[in-house]
Amino acid sequence: xxxxxxxxxxxxxxxLPLGLLLVSLVPNTIVTTAANAITAEEMLANPELxxxxxxxxxxxxxxxxxxxxxxxxxxxxxxxxRREVRSQIAAGDSDEAIMDQLQQKYGDYVLLNPxxxxxxxxxxxxxFAFMLLGGVIVLMARRQSGTxxxxxxxxxxxxxxxxxxxxxxxxxx
Length: 173
Prior knowledge:
Layout: H1 3-25, H2 47-59, H3 76-90, H4 95-106, H5 121-146, H6 155-172
Helix pairs in contact: 1-5, 2-3
């Protein structure tokens, strides 16, 4: 009877948080394919410039779709951003200049990998803080479950047990 609550406690305190931690550390295992959102008329004639445009498009977030690059998105805004990137490449702008211009226009949110600065510090550190908090909760719960007191038997309970053992020993002989 005592084992069941302890097992449940172990499950809730030890195994469940550990499982959640492992699941959060596993990279996204859902295989997604590119939406092939780029149409033929959007593509640049020069393969080297097109490759630059594709690389830049993969670094920019679709502001409509969220967590999807403009390279993969079918949204109208993503199409406009792809055209803007390609027009700036065709005009001779560098990759850094294009990224800076889009970042100034739309903010850090347009970047799939925002820079580590004071404004984005919480976004970068929050996962580690939550893992640390989860570890502290698990340790505190384990300490609490380990301090269960064992009830001592009083004299009447000892006498009953000794009487039962004596009767069992008498039967076995």
